[in-house]
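Reading a protein record of the kind used here takes only a little practice. The record below shows the convention in full.

——
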Amino acid sequence: MKQIAIFNHKGGVAKTTMTFHLGWMLASLGKRTMLVDCDPQCNLTGVFLGDMDTEDYPFESVSPQKPRNIRDAVRPAFESRPYMIEATELYRSPSRSDLFLLPGHVGLSEYESQLAVSHELSNTLSALQNIPGALHHAIEKTGDRYDIDFALIDMSPSLGAINQNLFMTSDAFIIPMAPDLFSSMALRSLARTLPKWAEWGRKAAGNAILKGADYPFPDITPKYLGSSVQNFRKRSRNNEEARPTHAFQKWFDRLAETKSTELIAALKGSNMLLPKEVYETAGAPPEDFLMEIGSLDGLIATAQDLAKPVFAIDLDQDTNFRGKVAETYVEKIEDVRKGFEQGAAKIIAMTATF
């Protein structure tokens, strides 16, 4: 199983939407895919449920040894329970048989401070040794049980201990962005932060106490698969392929410059890049965007109600859109499908070398 972190500490970049769409596309290409909701806001879990009529959270665990959400999955380590971490019961998408959800839980955030302490003191306090490797172990054990090919980890927009842990125990990562000033600022921040996380991860993986834990901290250096950019307007000029409008192109250029001059240099210095030939073979040079997904407009609300991605909407059966509106949406749906299909194919090609 390839574990891929979907991470940006800036909010509002359509991170959860991208995770759901990409996971669905990987499943449609024959890859058994598990989406792991590690954001205590549980937006990804909500996307899976769609407009399901429920007043109660449907993934509460009946037995502590049969977890049904990410919080309960790691409870044995964080609360020193007298039983081991077990595989979590996954929720299968009713519309995509190879797509599964490991549900989120708002209570996961309760473990944030405890995890932060364990990151600092587990090398001296053996009582904390099982905590740093718990999240990775729970995800990996669940993936093994369900024969998963890809696990996409949806993370909260923060630089907290939970995200640091999830990021540094993943095989690879993708950075979703929006074409705006604050995404450019976030890239500079990540260029400073990720090398620090990488150094911490190397020390944790080499720590004898963590190696001997019930849930050993893995020796992994996550690799950069690329950045996606979403939520922008496109326009075709002179019968050419549609490109971002002039207003958005300015931010595309700014993001590309920041990525090339600061982020990629920082990742290279921390051994977080794949070999150059891997990117070239997959058609995914790190200087370019892995995916460019335009604005989803009114289609996103329909997709959320249906618990489907935009590119799986059947306009005739699923909506009341007709006439010119429908014609416009047909083109947009195809554009979104093409973007995610190309992105998923690149990811499959790059991760085949792990």
